[in-house]
Amino acid sequence: WLPGGLVAPPHSHDHDEVMYVLEGGFSMGKRRCGPGTVVYLEAGTQYGFKVWDEGVRFLNIRSGLASYAEEGNAAKMEAFFRKAARRKPDLILATEGVLDGYVAPDVKKA
Questions:
Q1: Which position among 2, 11, 39, 92 has the lowest Cβ density within 10 Å, counted as fewest Cβ atoms?
Q2: CA neighbours within 13 Å on the CB side: how many for 81?
Q3: Tens digit of pLDDT for each residue in 19-56?
């Protein structure tokens, strides 16, 4: 879940990406992406978005752990991720090895 008003500055990833909007929405330029919207972005595509006032919950699918490249000021992207990280994820699904060593805050190791 990303809070309302959050702005992701223009950036790209090295993997193709599919975003499926579950609740709320965001705008990419003049395009409004609300519940049920599917956005496909090829690797290397520059994009950014602004989250609607009510926030957004979306499913993000990539073929692997993607890195990102930002256009412009690196501090903007760092601020975006810091703001987005304030909320714990509802669910993390990952292929084996993608999150090696990661343990969700509310999950205890056996």
A1: 92
A2: 7
A3: 999 999 999 999 999 999 999 999 989 999 999 999 99
